Amino acid sequence: MNEKLSTDRLDRRKFLSLAAGGLAGAALCTPAASLARVPGANDRLRLGVIGCGNRAASLIEDMSGFAKEENFEFAALCDLWKPNLQKTLARIKELTGDIPRTFPRYGDLLADKEVDAVMVTTPDHAHTPILIAACEAGKDAFCEKPMSMNIAEARQAVDTVRRTGRIVQVGTQRRSDGSYIAGAELVRSGALGQVSVIDLKWNDAGPRWERPYEDVKPEEVDWEGYLMNLPSRPFDARRFRCWHLYRDYSIGVVGLLGAHHTDLVHWYMDDPFPESVTATGGVLVWKEREH
Predict the structure, then answer these.
(1) pLDDT tens by residue, 91-119
(2) Global pTM value
(3) What are the residue boundaries of the Gfo/Idh/MocA-like oxidoreductase N-terminal domain, all occurrences included (predicted)?
(4) Phi first, then psi: what are they for 233, rounded to 5°?
(5) What 3 state SS string does 169-203 have?
(6) pLDDT at position 127, please?
């Protein structure tokens, strides 16, 4: 997905989809950034949000602060859980004054010709199918990590992005953080000499995947839409809210947190793929996990 972008072909809509959807730093450092200051409703980027949970809420809070400056609006929302949809709609109206259209299914949002680009902020298992559908629908996209659940899905997604020519950013946001950018420049400058070992750690205070689910009512959830292509099963509120726990919907902590570390190593070393991988560990503390 790290295709190099020429500022000659980076038109306003594509630039804003990169800047607004992904909070990307690289494009903002180019002369094309000046284009984002040009006002005009006809040129405004109309952004759709697919998945209105915790991650979307955080991005919306951050992005709303520069919506006018960058000339974009939240035009459409999609979520399978009605309370999420209603809460996000109310919050966007409060933050920006926008009143987005709402959709229960992502296919309906992608069919909306008024939507220029989308944010995919769903549970992991939905990332690749929605990203592919967005590209096929002619939408640029910001997709939360992990982009895919497995290598086959990832290859399919990359092939689709290249074939359709869409701009896509995956949510490894450290690449847009000045301190990490400076670190990459330091390592690549050779100032540290030959790097032979990189030791990375992540300490988390608690199981962020464990969420209350007692208030989830079956009549307020599009359970069939949530399962997507997975085998049918009875409604399960815990599977719906605590999806990080289950292999059907998530690749676990490796995808939730580890993706940031592995991406950092590849980026700093300017080496996109490892030659070999070894893993150790187990479900040692939170026994309710499948991972």
Answers:
(1) 999 999 999 999 999 999 999 999 999 99
(2) 0.83
(3) 46-171
(4) -150, 160
(5) EECCHHHHCHHHHHHHHHHHHCCCCCCCCCCCCCC
(6) 98
Distance CA 4, CA 8 (A): 12
Does residue 35 form part of some domain? yes
pLDDT digits (tens, 9 = 90+) for 130-147: 999 999 999 999 999 999
Query: Considering its fold, how many domains does the chain have in total?
Result: 2
Give yes or no: residues 20 and 104 share one domain: yes
CB-CB contact of 242 with 273 (8 Å): no
Chain mean pLDDT for the chain:
86
Nearest to 11 by CA among 128, 163, 167: 167
Look up tokens 């759709």; give the residue: 48
Please check whether residue 278 lies inside any domain of the structure: no
Backbone phi, psi, residue 85, to 5°: -65, -45
Q: How far apart are CA 62 and CA 58, in angstroms?
A: 6
Domain assignment of residue 208, given as a range: 183-269
- Element (DSSP H or E) covering residue 229: none
What one-character-per-residue DSSP string does 124-168 give?
GGGHHHHHHHHHHTT-EEEEPSPS-SSHHHHHHHHHHHHHHT--E
- In this structure, what are the phi and psi dihedrals at residue 83, rounded to the nearest 5 degrees? -60, -40
User: Is 189 found in the same domain as 226?
Assistant: yes
**Quick one: 84 and 224 in the same domain?**
no
State residue 52 phi and psi, 5-degree precision.
Answer: -110, 40
